[in-house]
């Protein structure tokens, strides 16, 4: 007869073995569901998007990444299960089952997000307020009772399916074999990654990645990283030969501060102004160079802007400073550093800074801002109030005869672009005695791409690709997949055309400078390269231009403010500071391709991984050579890569220090900041 202690020990081992078996009975359907989700992902993505990749290859290699994450998760949970099941066997089994259910549903949600934009969700999630996230989801039309009930149904269904694993015939030996496979697989994939020499291009990498693994890795890095928690930069004046502007960075307390000695590169292209000119900015949502203007590799869907460019100064190699809208105002008007989540994320306590808006306002300008959306989104209102903008018209400032943008869910981003332009023109102060800056920011060409009278623009799209672009019948289906996006671009192009027709009737039209650009490229249409998201046209038009010209020099939004101020400062007696902190240089008017700027580019909030220096680009720690029309080619050049890495790290540290410690400009320059 066995002793009580032996009996207890025997029961303990039996229970442990059983919990071990039960764990793998839950894990098998979990693995099968992940394999199935990859098939669903590939099917949906390739049906929604035109991609030049092999479905089979993406699926097979994708399974490698999916199983890696699944085994990593199961390996961790197996250890947890082994520890807890000896004490709370039933509760542990339920905990594991609920955890696996949630992980599967979250993977499904991340796949849904990815299928729309081909960008996996990462740390950018944490850069937006809950209210901004709620508004974005609501505007997309996805937040409704049907979807809520659908999520609940899926949760219950997955939980039930996992429970079916109890019918899987399995003994202890089989469970041990699966355990060995699990940890051996993790070791093997880790060795394979270390041996991998070349990284796939961004789009291919995104397609292959397990979306849960990407999200959790990014989240872990976000909450544990100390990348910005130290300050160890050295001041390196930009005095190299051939640079557009030499910056004497000598203020150790203010790493971006330098003398205001920017050359006037636009002056030769302009006749004399009658007086201080009016300045009009048209910032177009999602206006990517990929589908606008000459050499647009997706063909151009902006016929009016194309015709206007023939009478303008036009930069075909233009760059936005961010891959999302959050940085367009601070980039264009302030040439400002990014901080950690975008400059405006620091609101309401913005560090002391200058912009073209504040400097020209202190020189007598009246400043207008127009948008059809909510001025509070992305803290735009705080930024504009800091500049003491005289008149802000947003979605709360429309006359009752205007109709809001159509909606899927009852919630709308606001008013469509044609209404925004008309409302702005209706209320624009008409004065020939005081110069004005007027900003018109569009937003209709944004997800969910709902436009007024959409059938008209769908028909226009069909006619345009057939009769104007003459797209071959074999490629029509590729364009039709993005009909909503292209139709919205045609709509906003027409809206800008009508806006110009109205503006020409104003008395000061002949003495006005127009600057037109995009905030970033639409991510919903697949990117060709990692820099494609930043590639936007930049156009300067004015009746005072004495010639038109196509510029091939690389120019970013950072260069717009110092260039315009140099033009005005050279022509008029403006009171401008002797020291400035512009990140940019001047707009490059070269007729041949060249790149003489060194600027960071912020992909998403919390994602500062792109840097351009001369004709090289560092993106995700991969070095590329830059070509005309923003073409990229991966290169192996250790010394050049180290140079860019050093420059980039210097910027990151300077950025963190200056924005976190109010060290952009000193108090002595605050006299150029307008007061209430």
What does this structure look like?
- This protein has 676 residues and is an alpha/beta fold.
- It is built from 18 helices and 17 strands.
- The chain has helices spanning 4-48, 55-85, 89-117, 130-140, 145-163, 172-195, 202-208, 211-224, 303-309, 328-334, 356-361, 380-386, 417-427, 454-468, 473-480, 483-503, 560-571, 638-660, and strands at residues 258-259, 278-284, 313-315, 318-319, 366-371, 391-393, 436-441, 512-518, 538-541, 549-551, 555-556, 579-580, 598-601, 610-613, 616-619, 622-627, 631-634.
- The protein has an eight-stranded mixed beta sheet with strand order 6-5-7-2-8-9-3-10. It has a five-stranded antiparallel beta sheet with strand order 13-14-15-16-17. Strands 1-12 form a two-stranded antiparallel ribbon.
- Helix 1 (4-48) packs parallel to helix 3 (89-117).
- It starts with a helix and ends in a 16-residue tail after the last helix.
- The relative contact order is 0.13.
